[in-house]
Amino acid sequence: MPELLQAVKGMNDLLPPDSAKWRRIEDAARTAFERHGYAEARTPIVEYTPLFVRSIGDATDVVEKEMYTFADRDEKSLTLRPEGTASCVRAYLEHSVHKKEPVTRWYYAGPMFRHERAQRGRYRQFYQMGCEALGVGEPTVEAEQIAMLHELFTGLGLTALEVVVNSVGGPDDRPAYRAALVAYFTPHKAELCEDCQRRLERNPLRILDCKVEGCHRLAAAAPTMSQYLGAASREHFAAFREALEALGVAHTVDERLVRGLDYYTGTIYELRAQTGDLGAQNTVAGGGRYDNLIEEMGGPATPAVGFALGVERLVISIPGEVESYVPPTDVFLVGHGKPARLACLATAKDLRKLGLRVELEHRAASMKAQLKRADRLRARAVIIVGEDELARGEVVVRDMGKGEQLKVPAGDVASAIKGILG
Ligand code: HAM
Predict the structure, then answer these.
(1) Residue nearest (by alpha carbon) to ligand 1 atom 16
(2) What domains can you pick out in the chain, each with its CATH number?
(3) Is 335's C-beta closer than 6 angstroms to any atom of ligand 1?
(4) What does the pLDDT profile of the chain (422 residues) look like in tens digits?
(5) Ligand 1 proximity of 307 Cβ (cutoff 6 Å)
(6) How many whole angstroms separate alpha carbon 134 and alpha carbon 291?
(7) Would the CB of 113 count as within 6 Å of ligand 1?
(8) Where are the beta strands (DSSP E) in 290-351?
(9) Distance (Å) of CA 53 to CA 83, 222, 262
(10) What are phi and psi of 355, to 5 degrees?
């Protein structure tokens, strides 16, 4: 017997009925994004490695430990995208979009890849949907993004939500904060993990995000960014919170909130599911401002803000049996005998033109087996064609909800079905 092959660790198949719930979430998100003026951008799944190193930051976990990087046949270093923002910025600059429009709103959806420790809610291939608003520096835009996500999630049934916000300041505020962190952590250097000892020199802010117990404990008492925010950052953050309140979104400020990517400046935010068993993986969406990234990547100074949501985490967090997302079949056709099955084939084709979900049995199964299948598919109406009906030019139409059936001329099938489906 040949060995059965398995999917790559941390990468999952998405199969029915789960795919139906997934699809509902994706459709709802696309609708919400488009209503807010975001248009879809599709970028390649692989990029040249320096794109991610330069944008996400070479001292982040993502770049240091998690990227799927390989040389292609031309010996160019390529990386499977670990997130979507870097590619959006690259495409925005490569196509000189900034010269064509002052404000750009893009959304994207697709798989991302990070070699993380795989566990529930944390995968190596995961699916993100994200929005990026480029060219707007006003704090109302990030408030609007959060309100959009909040409405989207609650509309999908995820009502137990926590919105957590913070400001990580801008380039004017960072040096003083950085110095304060170095001063605080240096006497404790020996207690830090190996990674954080390195981070202390390269990027002390990253220590705040370390999950290692000793570092986490030390970080809890570290100085917070809020003490080092300049007037401009403070004003921006206050105006952002005011807009969030105007939009009716309850939120908490967590001065210890940091995010795993280096490009953030100013506002950062996360939406967390408070139900379910996701533990630390309960962050269903996260994002923030990256006002310097476009300039750092070689473009003109352009403020920007965005987020990405994790579809797998949403699927786990939104209550309801996955089966409830599978739409019922409108009509199931049961044909008895080869000529009757052929007639059913043609009738099914006509009914589908009316926009109905129609299925029929292609196999020569017994009437009982076919009706059983119709039941399993939750068919709302069944059309039965036997040899006698076929000879008389009639069909039997059964209303599965009422358990009633009647004979109708073959030409009246569509109206009889419409009568049942309402
Ligand atoms: P992120 O926080 O790294 O941000 O990811 C955003 C969301 O993707 C997370 O909140 C989570 O729901 C989901 N996610 C991340 N990693 C995994 C994983 N290994 N398994 C399952 N789900 C995961 C970004 O990626 C930024 N690009 C967001 C952004 C856009 N910021 C500005 N614009």
Answers:
(1) 122
(2) 18-173+229-317 (3.30.930.10), 327-421 (3.40.50.800)
(3) no
(4) 899 999 999 999 999 999 999 999 999 999 999 999 999 999 999 999 999 999 999 988 999 999 999 999 999 999 999 999 999 999 999 999 999 999 999 999 999 999 999 999 999 999 999 999 999 999 999 999 999 999 999 999 999 999 999 999 988 898 899 999 999 999 999 999 998 999 998 889 889 888 899 999 999 999 999 999 999 999 999 999 999 999 999 999 999 899 989 999 999 999 999 987 788 889 999 999 999 999 999 999 999 999 999 999 999 999 989 989 999 999 999 999 999 999 999 999 999 999 999 999 888 888 889 989 999 999 999 999 999 999 999 999 999 999 999 999 999 999 999 999 99
(5) yes
(6) 9
(7) no
(8) 304-310, 331-335
(9) 12, 27, 10
(10) 90, 15
Contact 156/145 with Cβ under 8 angstroms?
Answer: no
User: Which residue owns the Cα nearest ligand 1 atom 33?
Assistant: 306
Token code pair at residue 209: 């995000």
Hunting for tokens 């995968």 — which residue is that? 123
**Ligand 1, from 313, 316, 317: best to mutate by most atoms within 8 Å of Cβ?**
313
Q: From the CB of residue 65, how many other CB atoms can be counted at a distance below 10 Å? A: 11
